[in-house]
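Exercise 7b. Backbone tokens:
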């Protein structure tokens, strides 16, 4: 007699197969493009490719959330037990007939599953990066540290930490579905995506340095300002994620006033009660409008401070003639965030502006991580110019 299986692993295995198929194209392109290159150059190229596709994944995750497609397939990892919405079309049709504007429709199911395919593909790339780095690092150890510069790679702990991070990110993705868009989980999922970008950006920059790229020495005050900007942008991303996951964008649809005043009625205690379901407080009562207002306005007020710090950072970097590429990116992304943030408020949350606002925030954090990794604090602040043999300009 056959014993029934307690768990059906076929949807997970099929999803893994789809992720592998998604990753094979970029991997084949990279292999053809990098044939004959030193191992460190190939690994840096793989890191940059993974960074690019992870950023695309963050953008598509924002699109999934903003089109209310997060529950397009209400189970995980498959869609009603199938690897794609094609096999689940009868279940999706029944759910759509029962609630035509509900969370489950054919279009939303495809958006959700494409997001999962992309996420699994990025996971495959990170697995390849971790394995390739470990193998090359082991070869270097066997050579007694005499490997040529082009064969030297980063410590395998970097990609291993990235692999652990992406596994945790996948777990949060599953919880996002199974816990029905619990705001704290969805916000942590967004922050996890940004953290993954930071890890990959740091590895790409360290590979550049290992290949002989320069590291810019910054004064301690400027370096501290970089750290402050990174911390504030991280907090602002968390606040923005809390606004989006609680659907609080349109509670203030004018600027600079909100609901006709500078300080509208707000309930910060209920608005920032972190562990509660979507649209309700922890005791099950509906979330008050004043709580949604507090969520929105906290993000808006903190945005003023973040924008001021970013402008001050760009000005200080320009005066120091430091990190020209990074400061141009910071200025452009700060302008993008200002424009898209205003568009979300006064134009009733247009989809393009909302997706770009999330992407701009993720890009800001990535550039700040790049700037921090491409620079270091000088041992002492001196008036004389630093020696070009020890401190050089980062390539634009």
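Sequence design result:
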């Amino acid at each position: 007699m056959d014993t029934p299986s307690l768990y059906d692993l076929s949807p997970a295995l099929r999803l893994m197969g789809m992720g592998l198929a998604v990753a094979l194209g970029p991997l084949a392109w990279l292999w053809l493009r990098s044939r004959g290159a030193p191992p460190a150059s190939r690994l840096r190229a793989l890191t940059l490719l993974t960074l690019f596709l992870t950023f695309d994944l963050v953008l598509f995750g924002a699109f999934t959330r903003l089109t209310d497609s997060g529950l397009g397939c209400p189970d995980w990892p498959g869609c009603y037990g199938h690897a794609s919405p094609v096999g689940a079309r009868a279940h999706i049709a029944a759910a759509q007939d029962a609630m035509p504007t509900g969370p489950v429709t054919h279009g939303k199911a495809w958006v959700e599953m494409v997001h999962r395919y992309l996420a699994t593909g990025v996971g495959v790339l990170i697995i390849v990066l971790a394995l390739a780095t470990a193998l090359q690092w082991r070869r270097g150890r066997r050579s007694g540290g005499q490997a040529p510069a082009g064969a030297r790679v980063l410590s395998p702990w970097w990609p291993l930490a990235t692999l652990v991070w992406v596994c945790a990110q996948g777990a949060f993705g599953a919880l996002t579905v199974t816990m029905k868009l619990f705001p704290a989980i969805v916000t942590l999922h967004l922050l996890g995506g940004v953290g993954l970008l930071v890890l990959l950006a740091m590895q790409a920059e360290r590979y550049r340095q290992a290949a002989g790229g320069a590291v810019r020495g910054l004064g301690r005050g400027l370096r501290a300002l970089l750290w402050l900007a990174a911390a504030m942008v991280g907090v602002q991303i968390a606040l923005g994620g809390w606004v989006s996951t609680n659907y609080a964008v349109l509670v203030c649809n004018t600027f600079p006033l909100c609901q006709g005043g500078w300080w509208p009625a707000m309930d910060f205690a209920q608005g920032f009660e972190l562990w509660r379901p979507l649209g309700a407080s922890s005791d099950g009562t509906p979330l008050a409008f004043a709580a949604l207002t507090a969520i929105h306005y906290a993000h808006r007020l903190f945005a003023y401070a973040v924008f001021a710090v970013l402008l001050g950072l760009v000005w200080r970097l320009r005066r120091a003639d430091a990190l020209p590429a990074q400061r141009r990116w910071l200025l452009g992304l700060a302008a993008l965030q200002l424009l898209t943030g205003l568009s979300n408020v006064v134009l009733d949350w247009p989809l393009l502006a909302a997706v770009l606002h999330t992407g701009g925030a993720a890009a800001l954090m990535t550039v700040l991580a790049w700037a921090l990794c491409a620079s270091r604090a000088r041992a002492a602040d001196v008036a004389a110019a630093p020696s070009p043999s020890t401190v050089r300009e980062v390539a634009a």
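Instructor comment: The beta strands are 216-218, 375-377. Residues 38 and 150 are 5 Å apart (CA to CA).
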